[in-house]
Amino acid sequence: MTARAADQARYDRATAQLDAPVAIVDLDAFDANADDLVRRAGGKPIRVASKSVRCRALLERVLAREGFAGIMSFTLAESLWLARSGFDDVLLAYPSADRAGYAELAADPKLAAAVTVMIDDPAQLDLIDAARAGGSEVVRVCLELDTALKLLGGRVRIGARRSPLHSPAQVAEVARAVARRPGFKVVGIMAYEGHVAGVGDAVAGRPLRSRAVQLMQAAARRELAERRAAVVRAVREVVPDLEFVNGGGTGSVQHTAAEDAVTEIAAGSGLYVPRLFDNYTSFTGRPAALFALPVVRRPGVGVVTVLGGGYPASGAPGADRLPVPYLPEGLRYDPQEGAGEVQTPLLGPVADDLLIGDKVWFRHAKAGELCERFDTLHLVEGDAVTATVPTYRGEGHAFL
Q1: How many helices (H) and strands (E) does the chain have?
Q2: Model confidence over 205-224: pLDDT tens digits?
């Protein structure tokens, strides 16, 4: 029996009394992935990216482990909810236009102490001030640095279009604007190198593309390390008591941790290890989050149909944004149909071994987005479900 077949047998036994669709997290794999992230971080604390987890119980579990500290959230409403729930160090990773949320933040000392907001433009300070509604608490601010690699005088750009702040002078100028503004304090710098941390460099069957990605990422890491260090020096001239410099992501943990200027690493997807993180030379994780769909039809030889399955991930449209049939091994989509909203046909000789009611296990393309489809996660240890916990959706929250 292969390792994957053994996992299928465990998951089938653990969920035998549960009707599909059903989502699980294999805690043995989850904990092993957490240990690997800590090892790769080399002693620097890991701030957990909540959008990649979207389950309070699992956020609590990983933050109880040595090597993890703080949360990186994705909306202001989520940040406030987490802070009210007892998480005392929440960094909002994206600028917000949530006026009601800012009013709540500025009026509550506990929330203001726990939550740090992201800006990259003084105009965002104007929005926050206009939303205060009399709240006078000091708002903690983090400045986001654009990490994109720019070549040929800026005519070629590699990296996500996020912050407009690219140079040390630009970041320092915004830091000065915050320092001149009553009611705000710069406490950190964040830079997410998605073109390194979120792009696999070992794509199966595509050696030339893989080599090109490796060369690009090596150049991007060198350029960013120099520029990030210069940015930190420039900002510390304005803010000597800067609390943190956050960088990285699951795919670049050890590289970013090696930079002296960086004080903490952001990571989250590496806990679940969705399919987009299969193609890396720098690490190998264990798939921890899976979902099962039930076989409801057998249309013919070599074909079964499962209920649901149209759970695409965000990002540029493509086949790599679809979940992948994982267990039993050997199933594939019908290219004429793909993953359907209500039903999904699957092809392959192994289909003939499946009966009506059997489970087919899938891996989602991205990590936390799976939790937008399920109210609960069943936590598996060995071949048993040892707990069932709500996702954000199961607690009544859809933050985006």
Answers
A1: 12, 19
A2: 777 777 767 777 777 788 88
Tell me the C-alpha distance between 325 and 345, whole Å.
11
For residue 278, how far is the Cα from the chain centroid? Answer: 15
- pLDDT tops 80 at residue 62: yes
SS3 assignment, position 322: coil
C-alpha closest to that of 379 among 289, 292, 309, 293: 289
Q: How many angstroms separate the CA atoms of 246 and 192, rounded?
A: 8
Specify burial of residue 160 (Cβ count, 10 A radius: 0-12, 13-18, 19+): middle
Place of tokens 């960013």: 224
User: How many beta carbons lie within 10 A of that of residue 19, not counting itself?
Assistant: 10
Cα 31 from Cα 288, distance rounded (Å): 9
The alpha helices in the chain, defined as continuous H runs, are 3-14, 27-41, 56-63, 76-84, 99-107, 109-114, 122-131, 168-179, 194-197, 207-238, 253-257, 269-272
Mean pLDDT of 3-20: 96
Element of type H or E holding 351: none
Burial of 300: CB neighbours in 10 Å, binned 0-12, 13-18, 19+: exposed
Answering whether pTM is above 0.90, one says yes
For helices 122-131 and 168-179, what crossing angle results, to 10°? 30
